[in-house]
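User: Hi! I'm a student and our assignment asks us to look at how structure tokens line up with a sequence. Could you show me two examples?

Assistant: Happy to help. In each example below, the sequence comes first and the structure tokens follow. Example one:
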Amino acid sequence: MSEFVIVTDSAADLSAAMVEELDVEVLPLSFTIENQTYEDHPDRRAMPIETFYRLLREGKMATTSAVNVSQYTELVEPFLQSGRDVLILGFSSGLSTTYNSAAMAAAELGEKYPQRKICAVDTLCASLGQGLLVWYAAKMRQAGRSIEEVRDWAEAEKLHFCHWVAVDDLAHLKRGGRISATTAFVGGMLSIKPIIHVDNEGHLINVGKVRGRTASLKHIVEEMGKRVANPQNQIIFISHSDCLEDARIVGEEAKKRFGVKDVVYSHIGPVIGAHTGPGTVALFFVGTER
């Protein structure tokens, strides 16, 4: 069995330590803030994540950019040249054109290197939901599963990766056009906190609203309780926008209520954080349905 490389992108919000542990390759997406563009690497070499969220809290605007076909080709082709196959697990096509670029690069490189295998999967996931799927895939590879087996598993199971998100700052949802200015103003006055999740088409959608921060954190744990599968055997992932204490509240509650094996925490990176803003907590687990 030939060795294969797992490639994902920085929207997966995997930390540098997790990238090293899993032995995966991460293609950086880009973000622009204060008229300067940076690459979003897992080690945050371009900008410390704390600095990014400080700038957002100060009212600075951030925008993001998908990767193009040539960027994917430049990353992947050397692996094919060295005799390795490649499995790409990409950011949801419902949120970005990044996966489309990956699929186009895979098709072009497949023609150029017909003796190699290159597969691309639209995970329909984001942030550590995408990261959790990559984590499972890497563990399967470590256990000796083939590239086809891991690809087929990812396609079959991706809609069981649940994303439940408690947003604290309505301003960023307003800027992204997900809520109106009036809704943002009234919601801010009444301490209304939106609950969002990623649907089966990979879109980030607003599915509810809760009054108060504590209630919103509790709500996403309650949603987990409705659909989590075999929690005692799961390691769940939680990402946060520079609010680790709140993320730990969610993690400890999930441990207490469902007996999950462990909780992994990581920052929401600039690519996702530009749209959800500081103070966001996102809970990811494997469930019966999204």
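Example two works the same way, sequence first and then tokens:
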Amino acid sequence: MQIHHLVVGALQVNCFLLVDEASHEAYLIDPGDNAGLILKLVERSGAHVTRIINTHAHFDHVLAVPEVRAATGAGFHLHRDELPVLGWAGEAAAAWLGRTWGPPPPVDVYLAPGDDLRLGTTALEIRHVPGHSPGSLIYINHAGRRAWVGDTVFAGGIGRTDFPGCSFPQLIEAIHTQILTLPDDYALYPGHGPFTTVGRERKTNTYLSDAVRADAAEENS
């Protein structure tokens, strides 16, 4: 599988194009903006995008979805719990960027853990990691020892939890049970910023310490 990476939009979202080398079928993760750049990448790679698989639906991750969906015919995939977040995306884009956007694109397929997501011979495990948003998903390629984690965890940080539908205790617990259970050498591709590894975050990310986890659990009790 080929992995192409673009940084898009004012909020510098990491967008990924995953291409099966045999069939040229492709999945697109988080087309946050700059649809023209994304479509040029698709054309240069000779890929046929069949699925747009978003990690979540905050505005900075979905702004290019309508144009890419229309141009490629790819289905838009999202967790069902993200529908309210998608519904607020136009309002958020106006508040943050002064930009008119909407109506939101229809969701073609609702994804959930256990669904079979396979690009050629590459299997992607889906895990639900709520907290930054209610329906945040991560996609894990175990054979390649890597995961696309959206805005759940960053290099040295975690996703914001001060938006509607967020929960700091929920996010901390979900990271521990759904991401830190992966082996240390797994690469993590977050929604913003540099790439990292499970081991690096386990050792150096102060948000993921046992003390913070205990405090978050007490806050949630």
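Here is something you could point out in your write-up. The chain has a mean pLDDT of 96.
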